Amino acid sequence: MALILKALAGISALVLLAITLFSSLIAIGGALLTAIKFAIIAIFVAVVVLIIFSMLRDRSRRRREAATF
Questions:
Q1: What pLDDT, on a 0 to 100 scale, did the predictor assign at position 64?
Q2: If we measure between CA atoms, which residue out of 11, 9, 15 comes closest to residue 1?
């Protein structure tokens, strides 16, 4: 009887350990997904800023060319 209780205790300890490890793995995955989302937003903002900067630079270049003629 004691052997069966020890076996059940060992199996339940392993199951609880696996649940704890999976929950920490899910937390790490959530943190990585959050970091990826922030990186995507930062890249998008950088691209928009570069597009606006190039538009303004082209506009000023056209004005300079128009002023020289």
A1: 83
A2: 9
Per-residue DSSP letter, 19 = H
Per DSSP, the three-state class of 69 is coil
Helix (H, G, I), strand (E, B) or coil at 1: coil
Q: What is the pTM of this model?
A: 0.62
Alpha carbons 24 and 18: distance in angstroms, whole number: 10
Residues 24, 11: Cα–Cα separation, whole Å: 20
How many helices (H) and strands (E) would you count in the chain? 1, 0
Length of the chain in residues, anyone?
69
Q: 16 vs 1, 20, 40, 63, CA distance in Å?
A: 23, 6, 36, 71
